[in-house]
Specification:
By secondary structure, the chain is α+β, with helices and mostly antiparallel strands. The chain has one domain: Alpha-Beta Plaits (2-Layer Sandwich). The chain has 2 helices and 4 strands, in the order E-E-E-H-E-H.
Length: 84
């Protein structure tokens, strides 16, 4: 499951530098997460770092349009790291 930054985002710049997959970037109005690069930090950390550092409750949520299993997220991690 990729994550999604909601309209609650205040553009505090906390999440972008924390993403180990470079999946977060500034969109037209708020930060956005590229679902093709988001692994929910699987392979890097125990939990998503963007959620950990975000000062706004429920600002970064599971993206209902990009549901993936833990195995799929780990496979994406391996691919992004060039480990295949």
């Amino acid at each position: 499951m990729a994550l999604l930054i909601t309209e609650k985002c205040i553009n505090c710049d906390m999440c972008d530098p924390e993403c180990p997959n470079d999946a977060i970037s500034m969109g037209p109005e708020i930060y956005e997460i590229d679902p093709d690069r988001c692994t929910e930090c699987k392979g890097h950390y125990d939990k998503p770092t963007c959620q950990s550092v975000c000062p706004i409750t429920n600002c970064i949520i599971t993206d209902p349009e990009h549901i993936e299993t833990e195995d799929e997220l780990l496979e994406k991690f391996v691919t992004l790291q060039g480990l295949v």
